[in-house]
């Protein structure tokens, strides 16, 4: 994997992570070291200092994510996303085959996800579900989200008590 000395992550690898074409270990390495790695790649931290759940980064040159150009990405609790203008919601949701949550269809808010795969052999011995997510109101955040299997986490918590 990547060591903190080498910073082997490239823009191409970052693109793969956001598009869910990477594995959990690579994602975790970037997530854990995002401040240093993204700075090395030329991304500027534009985060709101009062927010502890999300980091935002901008770049002077665009990156292609899902065949769309953006200069803004974000680090969420369980994922790394790219930001696009709201008008891109419908074309991107169709391209990625992601539907809005039926409960939100009458609102302007979009929340949808699509399971890509489940990785059973993680170093944590818990299945990790890899999903493309879309979330947004004014801007739309689209990217890769990794979630530990809820039932396995609960089973392990009960076992360890």
**Helix and strand run:** HHHEEEEHEEEH
What sort of overall outline do the alpha carbons produce when their principal axes are compared?
Answer: globular
The secondary structure category is: alpha+beta
Enumerate the spans where pLDDT stays under 50 for 5 or more consecutive residues: 1-7
Q: How many strand segments?
A: 7
Count of separate DSSP helical elements: 5
Strand content: 35-45%
Protein name: Profilin
Organism: Acinetobacter portensis
What would a concise description of this structure say?
The protein has 161 residues and is α+β, with helices and mostly antiparallel strands.
Topology overview:
Layout: H1 11-18, H2 24-32, H3 34-40, E1 44-45, E2 55-65, E3 68-75, E4 79-85, H4 89-96, E5 110-119, E6 128-136, E7 139-148, H5 150-160
Antiparallel strand pairs: 1-2, 2-3, 3-4, 4-7, 5-6, 6-7
Helix pairs in contact: 2-3
């Amino acid at each position: 994997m990547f060591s903190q000395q080498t910073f082997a992550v490239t823009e191409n690898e970052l693109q793969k992570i956001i598009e869910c074409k990477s594995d959990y270990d690579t994602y975790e390495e970037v997530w854990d070291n995002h401040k240093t790695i993204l700075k090395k790649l030329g991304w500027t931290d534009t985060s709101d200092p009062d927010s502890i759940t999300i980091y935002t980064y901008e770049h002077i040159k665009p990156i292609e994510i899902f065949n769309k150009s953006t200069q803004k990405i974000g680090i969420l609790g369980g994922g790394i996303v790219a930001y696009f203008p709201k008008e891109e919601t419908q074309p991107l949701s169709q391209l990625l085959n992601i539907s809005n949550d039926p409960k939100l269809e009458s609102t302007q808010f979009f929340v949808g996800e699509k399971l890509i795969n489940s990785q059973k052999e993680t170093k944590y011995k818990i299945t990790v579900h890899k999903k493309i997510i879309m979330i947004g109101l004014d801007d739309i955040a689209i990217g890769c989200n990794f979630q530990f299997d809820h039932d396995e986490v609960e089973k392990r918590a009960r076992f360890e008590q």
